[in-house]
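Reviewers of the previous submission asked for a worked example of the structure-prediction workflow described in the proposal, so we include one complete record here. The input consisted solely of the amino acid sequence. No template or homolog information was supplied to the procedure at any stage.
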Amino acid sequence: MTPELGIIEGFFGRPYTWDERAGMVRALQPAGYGFYIYAPKIDGYLRRRWREPYPEAELAALGGFADACRAAGVRFGVGLSPYELFMDFDEASKAALAAKLEQLDSLGLADLGVFFDDMKGDQADLAERQVEIAHWIAERSRAGRLIVCPSYYTDDPILDRVFGRRPDNYLEDLGRGLDPAIQLMWTGEEVCAKEFSPGHLARVTEQFRRKPFLWDNYPVNDGPRMSQHLHLRAFTGRPAAIGPHIAAHGVNTASQAVLSRIPALTLAESYARGEDYEYLAAFRRAAVEVCGPELADALERTILLLDDTGLDRLGDERHGNLRKRFAAFDHPAAREVLAWLDGHWRIGTEELQTQ
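From that input alone, the workflow returned the following structure tokens.
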């Protein structure tokens, strides 16, 4: 069973261009990718500056992309992160939120994400407050589907270290309080889960009182550590057997819009082939589809350097050899490799703290 597949543009650092977004939608829709949630961390109007209205030009550009999604038969959505709204959900905050929802509704949203991640969460009544906000939004938004990302969206204890200890029974209280029509996101046992199992997802379903909507943090490569690598390999650890246990499977793509299509295509193949899936063969087929046979071969031959070694550990000789190899191709995927080699997508801790 292939679940609903889609793209979540939810990474830190340099965002995609509008042309890159539209190109990804057109390229992946035939493989079964049916939704796109626009939520780049750099868009302050959805995050720390959410109370400010979108300028007309930026709203028009977002509307143009919404039209491109609909023309391709893909659901268009936006991820709104009302930063620490649950700390003071007063009349002024409600007025600002209503104004932002009105702007977003003008885009004709199929999906609205309400994301409570990346903010302090160690308060006993956190779930109760977030349920109140989610229901308030649901009563006013015209989006076809509401999807909530909890503050603690994984079992990974790193969230407790960064944002404070999660309240006892937080997920159970959130699942019990939320209207069953509202979906809940989950990244797995870790922020960047290596695998998902039916047993794990069944446990989360019990806590949520609904099937989880997967936010899959592969092949995303933001942050000081991951931006050193190009995540090109085919998906593994997502067996087709998890399909019946999830509401949808959203892929948080890498900073490289064209190269991201390679692993994305392999996820669709993994679901389609089930137990017959072979990840290396899937990578080859996807790379050829995205890049053509010669560039696909070059990527496969250098994947240990691109994916595993890390930019700062390449050394001058290997760095130069890679530049020479990929400069020979007139293809957007090759240009992304070259830009990565030039440090175009490097990201530091400051971006993580301010976006």
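The CA atoms of residues 237 and 261 lie 18 Å apart. We consider this example representative of the routine output the project will generate in years two and three.
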